[in-house]
Design goal:
Length: 249
């Protein structure tokens, strides 16, 4: 088994081993992973944080040893908490990194960082404060940063920055936590999931107080939430059908 770490800021994780393939997620700076299959130009990997799989360009990561991977696994994530920051390599060359980048591998990469960090679990009320950092970020399928993010990438990163683990896709996140029977039982920071006409979970957002929800739909935005689903204030209609509310924290 081979192992790797992302030494660049935002690297696409693709469905197939080609630049033309769908981007299913992103690998942010410092994330480490197992290499499941290595071809001439591409590698299929499994991310350590959420076990998500996809293909990455071999030029966009560096290999690490098994012992180094295991050492990173034992540590709680230490994350950058500024929207944009940078690290310096041994030649004093600058690498920009986005909010939520993992800094546990700085010594391994021979990089330095002097920005703000988070590395502990926050109280549940911090979830909404963190979510507001992403407000108006454009929707991007597979995205995980304030410069482009999808609905489940948004919920995953907000929870991650507060010390909690969510899986990558909305359908996976819907399997976590405790189901609530009514909106009235929910608290700010709980997750609301929405399905399509086939009954598949296709959307997720974070519940706020007073029956509002913050979610990524066109951009990270705030809308009304009721027993039917999400009511888009601008369009004056429901855009998503409520399936289940989950309490993860």
């Amino acid at each position: 088994m081979l192992y790797g770490i992302c030494n660049l800021s935002i690297v696409p994780l693709r469905l197939e081993p080609t630049d033309r393939s769908e981007m299913v997620s992103q690998i942010l700076y410092g994330e480490h992973f197992k290499i499941l299959e290595q071809q001439k130009s591409w590698s299929k990997i499994r991310l350590a944080f959420d076990t998500y799989e996809g293909w990455v360009d071999n030029k966009q990561y560096i290999e690490i040893l098994k012992d180094q991977y295991k050492a990173l696994q034992k540590e709680s994530p230490k994350l950058s908490s500024d929207i944009v920051e940078f690290v310096l390599d041994e030649n004093k060359e600058l690498y920009t990194i986005p909010l939520g980048s993992t800094l546990n591998g700085l010594d391994l990469l021979n990089h330095t960082h002097d920005g703000n960090t988070v590395y502990y679990k926050n109280p549940k009320e911090e979830i909404i404060k963190t979510a507001f950092i992403y407000l108006n970020a454009p929707y991007l399928w597979g995205g995980k940063t304030p410069f482009g993010i999808d609905c489940s990438g948004f919920t995953q990163m907000v929870y991650k920055l507060n010390g909690y683990n969510l899986l990558r896709d909305a359908s996976q996140q819907a399997m976590q936590g405790e189901a609530l029977s009514f909106i009235e039982e929910s608290e700010p920071g709980d997750l609301a999931f929405f399905d399509n006409t086939e009954g598949e979970i296709v959307h997720v957002g974070i519940i706020m107080k007073d029956n509002y929800i913050i979610h990524a739909h066109g951009k990270v935005r705030i809308d009304r939430l009721d027993h039917t689903g999400i009511y888009n204030i601008n369009k004056r209609k429901h855009t998503h059908k409520l399936r289940v509310i989950k309490k993860v924290i």
